[in-house]
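Q: what does this look like with magnesium ion bound?
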Amino acid sequence: MQTNELLNSYFANDIRALAKILTIVESRGADLEDIMSKIVSKETNSYCIGITGPPGAGKSTIVDKLTHILRKEGSKVGIVAIDPSSPFSGGAVLGDRIRMQDHAGDEGVFIRSLGSRGSHGGLSRATRDIVRVMSGFGFDYIIVETVGVGQTELDIMELADTTAVILVPEAGDTIQTMKAGLLEIADIFVINKSDRPGADGIRQGLTALVEMSGGKKWKIPVIKTDALRTEGIEELYSMIMSHKDFLENDPKRREHKAKIREAEVVQITIEQFEKVLTKKINSRSAVATLVEKVKVGKENPYTAASNILQKIIK
Ligand SMILES: Nc1nc2c(ncn2[C@@H]2O[C@H](COP(=O)(O)OP(=O)(O)OP(=O)(O)O)[C@@H](O)[C@H]2O)c(=O)[nH]1
Ligand SMILES: [Mg+2]
């Protein structure tokens, strides 16, 4: 299908066109810039919710239950499940698909899994674009589920408007070692699996952590859930809505968004430059000669690389 045709179908709300565009986004395909620039120039109103936390904390179960509430409110929901440790797109997160089969056949819910393989090392870039493509398609809420509490999540979570960090009663050590990091990421703390012992202790610990950090306009709420039995999910939903209201009135939000856009344009430029450069390296015969020399051991790769760069810049 031609790019234009594909975009027309996408804008006409064809779910297959959406899926195809997402595949191009994941593989950072040739038409990426063209497609993205047309999609991004359309104003949208969608709200991005980040759900992050250690493996098996119950993130997918929470996403599933939240989706039910959002659907009842009449909102359309796009879900992106990211597993950076998975070499296969949609492999390790297959469980998510099964768990969320509940929503199969519901046109108001669209689920996409993303492993590290499809994204060519640019997981946060691919995720950002996937969220854009979903929001251009008209989903009111886009939920991004990501595993772990670390740097990748920080990157990815920058694009979420509201981020909930999901912990479990056994997470005492994680909280101790991750204090500052957790506070930086979380807009809401969730202690899931609160049917198990220790939930109240963790809750006190987290509340103390929030109190100590003090002085912020948004005080991070700490809530308990039992996602399996759908307990506390309504509260989580209402906390997300409170944070959404808070952001709408927060002047700092615009500054924050501006900073993200700034970082983004640099990222995109580098990515495009890399593509141009790769093309040139592969197409020039003078470069090929140099590469050939390296291959047979007549030149070292460092000197060759410097020479290649010189040739291309000229
Ligand atoms: N006891 C209990 N089990 C739960 C709860 N929430 C989820 N689980 C179970 O915990 C397991 C993991 O749940 P998931 O929702 O897949 O967790 P996840 O965080 O998405 O897992 P990964 O994506 O693999 O990191 C499943 O067997 C769930 O049924 C809860 O509140 N209490
Ligand atoms: Mg999951």
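DSSP finds 13 helices and seven strands in the chain. Residues 1 and 17 are 10 Å apart (CA to CA).
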